[in-house]
Amino acid sequence: MPFAEVNKRGFVDQTFQLLAGTLGASRLAFYSVDESDNLYNFVCRRMPSEFLKAYIREMHAFDPLHVRHAAHKPDTVVRMDYADRYAPPGSVGIYRDFLGAFEVRNTIDLLFRRDERIYAGISVMWTRDDDTPTSDVFDLAEKLHGYIDYNLRGQFRESKPEARRAAMATLHLTPREAEVAELLCCGRTNADIADFLQIGVSTVKTHLIHIFDKTGVENRSGFVSRVMQLS
Questions:
Q1: Count of other CB atoms within 10 angstroms of residue 67
Q2: With CB atoms 3.0 to 4.6 Å apart as the test, which of 2, 24, 41, 87 could cross-link to 32 if both were Cys?
Q3: Model-level pTM?
Q4: Which pairing describes strands 39-45 and 104-114: parallel, antiparallel, or unpaired?
Q5: Domain 161-230 class?
Q6: DSSP string over 14-42
Q7: Phi and psi (nearest 5°) for 82?
Q8: Selecting from 3.30.450.80, 3.30.70.100, 3.40.50.720, 1.20.1250.20, what CATH number does the domain 3-155 have?
Q9: C-alpha distances in Å from residue 83, one per residue of 66, 186, 207
Q10: Would you list the domain boundaries of the chain?
């Protein structure tokens, strides 16, 4: 892993320790946000893999705290307690049931903006084994946001879509491989990519093999890191 990527992961891990220690939440997830408000590059702490898979595949569409709902509001910390401010009651109910199935009793998202666009966020989740968060805890989250925001800007460069596409071009991908790679960078699963491009999952897997071979990486995270280095 390149030195810059090690630094970024180290920053995220330190931020997780800070939030877990001060807010008393056991599950956390850092994510990047692309220009279409898709979440990608998840880094998680004590997050069940099945939760993340279900979220990426379908449940993100019901998440009232997703950036697509908060993008046009000034809030820096969005709370599940106020979910009805961001999404219809039907979606909120479905998502609350999803959280409950994984023993999550409450959650907030810290949202980070640059040039008025959300480019990253951190989900903070309290499970049934955690102490119930109080108003003081939520106030502390608001205060910590400014500190994290300041330091986050120094760790993560903005990756504009034009820069990412230019990076793709340097990798000599075919047009179809570039389409698959773009969706991969947005955090889409193989099934999602297949549905979007109207091709088979086996075809997606073949494209990924060629993409990884051309870029000299072994997996999805390695490819995303490679593109970020070039963009």
A1: 22
A2: 41
A3: 0.70
A4: unpaired
A5: mainly alpha
A6: HHHHHHHHHH--SEEEEEEE-TTS-EEEE
A7: -110, 30
A8: 3.30.450.80
A9: 10, 25, 39
A10: 3-155, 161-230
Q: Give the chain's largest Cα–Cα span.
A: 53
What are the two backbone dihedrals, phi and then psi, of residue 94, each rounded to the nearest 5 degrees?
Answer: -60, -40
Q: Which residues contact 98 (CB under 8 A, 6 or more apart)?
A: 54, 59, 62
The Cα 219–Cα 184 span in angstroms is 11
Sheet containing 27-33: give its strands across.
Answer: 39-45, 27-33, 117-127, 104-114, 77-79
Residue reference for tokens 């480019």? 119
- The first and second tokens of residue 61, run together, are 């569409």
Distance CA 33, CA 156 (A): 12
Each of the 231 residues of the chain gets a pLDDT tens digit; together they read 333 444 577 889 999 999 999 999 999 999 988 888 888 889 999 999 999 999 988 999 999 999 999 888 899 999 999 999 999 999 999 999 999 999 999 999 999 998 888 999 999 999 999 999 999 999 999 999 999 999 888 776 655 556 666 767 788 888 889 889 888 877 788 988 988 888 999 999 999 999 999 888 888 888 887 777 676
